[in-house]
Design goal:
5 helices; alpha+beta; 4 strands; NADH Oxidase; 169 residues
């Protein structure tokens, strides 16, 4: 698919089928992630955790719902969750790094005909003391920053027209 076609189709997906994302497609998503820029080239300060275990995804969702007193599923019952973690706590580069990596994954997912949704609030609100963190097998001092849920969309991928006010100087 042409790059601009991918951009036209990319949309935040909130409804997924039960179909699992294939290992082959997960490999392609990770390849896209590895090509993302990381501030100061500090790839060693970044980690990705691929969660295919539906029980763990549901556990993370419930932990957030309980803490925030929410009823809706913040992970949209997606079959795949990829979490970006970092130990780069000295500055905000971890947020920009996560954005670059997860956007590459989102675009690759769209190219593969998969839906995706960028997740930040869950990890921000659970903080670095979430109970689920111990199950992620992260290196010491690493903490989740953001994530992305991915799956086969119940609806056809069809992007939306957006504009950003732009100044030309």
């Amino acid at each position: 698919m042409d790059f601009y076609k991918v951009l036209e189709k990319r949309v935040s997906t909130r409804k997924y089928t039960d179909e699992k994302v294939s290992d082959e497609n997960i490999k392609k998503l990770l390849d896209a992630a590895y090509k993302a820029p990381i501030g100061l080239g500090a790839y060693d300060k970044s980690r990705l955790t691929v969660i295919k275990d539906k029980t763990l995804i549901e556990e993370i969702s419930r932990e957030y719902q309980e803490k925030m007193d929410k009823k809706s599923d913040p992970l949209f019952n997606a079959p795949l969750l990829i979490i970006f973690s970092s130990d780069n706590k000295e500055n905000d580069l971890r947020f920009q790094d996560a954005g670059c990596v997860l956007e590459n994954i989102s675009l690759a997912a769209t190219r593969l005909g998969l839906g995706s949704y960028y997740i930040r609030g869950v990890f921000h609100n659970l903080g670095d003391s979430g109970k689920y963190i111990e199950k992620l097998n992260l290196d010491q001092d690493f903490c989740p920053v953001s994530g992305i849920v991915i799956g086969h969309s119940e609806d056809e991928l069809s992007g939306k027209e957006h504009t950003i006010k732009t100044n030309f100087i």
